[in-house]
Amino acid sequence: MTVQFSDPRPGSLEPYWMPFTANRAFKAGPRMFVAADGMHYTTADGRQVLDAMAGLWCVNAGHNAPRIVEAIRTQAGRMDYVSSFQMSHPLAFVLAERIAEHAPAGLDRVFFTNSGSEAVDTALKIARAYHKVSGQANRVKLIGRAKGYHGMGFGGLSVAGIARHRRDFGPLLGDVDHLPHTHDLAHNAFSRGQPAWGAHLADELEAIVQIHDASTIAAVIVEPVTGSGGVLPPPVGYLERLREICARHGILLIFDEVITGFGRLGGPFGSGVLGVTPDLITCAKGMTNGAVPMGGVIASRAVYDAFMSGPDAAVELMHGYTYSGHPLACAAGIGALDTYEQEGLFARGPEICTAWEAAVHQLKGARHVRDIRNIGLLAAVELDSREGAPGARAGEVIDRCFEAGVLVRVAGDNLVLSPPLIITPEQMAQVVETIDAALKAVN
């Protein structure tokens, strides 16, 4: 069957094994989108749905951003592909320089991947290889955090801390340990931005060091703000303590900024907004506004320089992907940065984030709501769980929101919100009113 791009009718639904999806349930009642523009998707039956999730945390500049569309179109007509192994193309170098200009000072070397999952696995490999080339090959252990999400590669899954994601795929990597998460409603319920309580939880890293010895630990990886685990902002002082402990013990600190990068917290990178500089940053999602798959690792000069030894003709890092630095992805990345900069989306971050905080906290006191957390243009509304049916109530709420024209994501008992940076106060009100109505309608 030949299907035109404009034809909303798919052929058989059966051949496509969908990711993170109840395939049988979806195919019995498919939810299809056929177009997107600005803040909205268009469904196959012609309804407009406000995207309160920025696609999947990634469409930060809104859908169909003209500069990005044109950049991809132009590059597709000029050169479709070239390998990045011992050759390249100009846009890869332009994009790397542009990203480095926005990264925290000292992080100015960019390794391109094709997704956040690949970026995380790359960062973990770089961390281990860095210690090996630095003469400390016994530093191999990796420390993640409970409730953390770092993609679905075996490395990222091993350091992640969401049990349901890990359960079916073990055994995972050895030489991994985990910090506790920072979620504690007894102290942090209805916090706005960074909660005041919890910095001491970073000291659990010292306990892990006492168990394993610092000389065996390669890296600690955390999301500056836990995303898929339920939007957990870091307590005031928490990331600073992690930074200090890692530096004191010679452990690399990796920030997974796949979600928090490119404007999500009100600035180019969450590390810059929060004022803590890691050794490595992983990024993806907003890097191309979701238009073309792409990810990357931003490394400090010290990490990069450690590899630049031996014969000049030697490959310093025996790692990469067929599509690393893909021409269309680089064009999309440059178009995305042009959009963020020229439309002032980074600059308006503080203003829009303040309005967002005020809007989502209007749901305090709404039926079933036990907590609201926000930071930047992120928020989670945590619901009371039904006895014996965790997540069921939240699932019903997002279904009602979708029928009412607002796309919301669910993570356990959390309604997760991450709208494009172009959202207006009126659209914020629409999101909040739609959720409130859905909460009133479910038991």
TrEMBL record:
Signal peptide: none annotated. The keyword DNA damage does not apply. InterPro entries: Aminotrans_3, Aminotrans_3_PPA_site, PyrdxlP-dep_Trfase, PyrdxlP-dep_Trfase_major, PyrdxlP-dep_Trfase_small. SUPFAM superfamilies: PLP-dependent transferases. Coiled coil: none annotated. Its cofactor is pyridoxal 5'-phosphate. The keyword Transferase applies. Keywords: Aminotransferase, Pyridoxal phosphate, Transferase. It comes from the Bacteria. One of its GO terms (molecular function) is transaminase activity. Belongs to the class-III pyridoxal-phosphate-dependent aminotransferase family. This is Aspartate aminotransferase family protein. It comes from Tistrella arctica.
